[in-house]
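> agent: user asked for a holo structure of the chain below bound to zinc ion. Plan: (1) validate sequence alphabet, (2) canonicalize SMILES, (3) run complex prediction with ligand conditioning, (4) return tokens. Step 1... ok. Step 2... ok. Step 3 dispatched.
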Amino acid sequence: MINELRDEKPKRRNKLSLTPAPIYRCLRGYAFDPILSLDPETAFINEVVFKIRWDDLEPRAISNEEPALENDWRKNPGLGPVGEYVEVVDYDPASNAFYAPINLNDPWLLGQNGLPPSEGNPQFHQQMVYAVAMTTITSFERALGRWALWAPYRGSDGRPDQFVQRLRLYPHALRQANAYYDPKKIAILFGYFPAKPADPASTLPGGTVFTCLSHDIIAHEITHALLDGMHRRFIEPSNPDVLAFHEAFADIVALFQHFSFPEVLHHQIGRTRGDLSSQNLLGELAQEFGKASGRYGALRSAIGQFNPETKRWEPYKPDPGALERTLEPHARGAILVAAVFDAFLRIYSNRVADLMRIASNGSGILAPGALHPDLVNRLADEAAKAARHVLQVCIRALDYCPPLDITFGDYLRAIVTADYDLVPDDDRHYRLAFVDAFRRRGIYPRGLRTYSEESLRWPEVQEPRVIAQALKKIGQDLLAEAYRDTPYYRSREEAFNRTHQMRERLHELIEQRFNTHEIDIEQHKLTGIVLTAKHPFFDEHPHNGGIEFKDGLPKFEVHALRTAQRATPDGTIESDLIVVLTQQRRVVDPQSGATITFRGGVTLILNAYTYDLRYAIRRDITDDTRLNNQLSLSNTYGSGSIADTYFHNPPGSQNPFALLHDSNS
Ligand SMILES: [Zn+2]
């Protein structure tokens, strides 16, 4: 029975119906988490309707076996909502029970926007996880102009990577105050736990808290999965910023999604009288989790925090020294989140400056009392626009990052360049807002002397360089035909498989054409990897410096190949082709005797029509200073809690993307 269901092709549309498929599916859920529904002030804004792109959801059979944790976990059928991108599997290992899956195509549920929010109904939990997951995926696809792909399932014994169509979501996977993305299983595990509040008035002691009911936690974890699908090397902590970046980015997406709920936005703008730098729900993450796990406020905040000594909420002050002192990834990531949120606040206040002048008769000081509803509407409008732009640029900047060993400074350069490509004329000073917010937190890109926009932008590749010309030729020969039809792939799987073939072909062409000593020296300057045995690097380093060879040539990888579309302000559509090359060295650490992997590589951004090389964002494989920094980092944090969670990740330890690395203690 299960087999039959599995093999059956999904029915996309009722053949007898002339009505086209709907565009959206509306589903009710919490804007934040259940705790806000207990507070009379926030209860009425906490229930929102998620408008999700229509995805035909197939009801699936229930298997009696535990479907995902065994070796053949991919072969077993999914359960709860199963769509194009995600599948909800509601298995609770602690009680060895399946919860019956919700059928979102049930007419009675279609007719009332899904189940009403409820903490006690597991089917609603499935609906909530599905709704927020799809909302987050859509934010990504909209910003990048391409399909979202999950990290591939890595075939063991040298088998090729396998396409993973669906991310698995387990709403009740753990009995603990945690939730995490598992990059090996391509799954997200949500936990639940009894509340242990520091302040019993804030939440019910002993009541159960479900992380799968928190918009922020779901969005955060889905973002980890999306980021891992794009940048698989960003889970390797080669410098203290890498994992902190993963955490920060996941928080940034969750935060800016708050601004897409109009009711919440209007309410909070009214309550703060338009001043979003004062305490408000939009800038805070995971209220219930924070309070139920013994904190006084939200788990994390972009703007300030509750001071347990003074018992008051206090705004953060930018501290340029904090970066040096703070190494735990969530705490370090919070510095980046604060910088991005600060840039947003600046952009927002610039956008509303005229409205505030009008509303205050030029004095800048608003009259006491509630704001006029028209003013609230206009301010909310501006806040939503600014938040959309910031979120879009933050996501697009991922295409402008080096493929590994990312730093916060690189991310600033990526944001500035991505924004420049989108809106070359910065008449509203958005980029200045970012640059200033980062500078005030001591976030400096490596090797830059000035903080001007021109110097922060990645340098454009100057033609004609031999290598740029060679790449252009490869592009014309190989990629032209293949990439012209990218937007027309019929499925994400086709896109994945086709890209895989293209990467193999590109690898061959690079090997064939970049094989002379002169070209290798030239291309190394641009890409940071070495392609011939004659490169001086091999004379200077015994054992080939840890670079493996195959058929007499240094091994390298065409790590990724993707396109990005962008609409320019004058209305034309530009398309970029992104080619990522990487290489690795296996190096024995003289101090610990352990072997570490040190990587180099490049993100090449080419114009997808002309194949002109625009940017080359590289990490040099021959850079021994960078290697030594990585070695000393792995020694400094070789023991203790950060190491267990983030740097060595021994079996049995928590996953690198746990919501907390030391939960509920
Ligand atoms: Zn995380």
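> agent: step 4 complete. Summary for user: The longest strand covers residues 573-588. Residues 465-626 form one domain.
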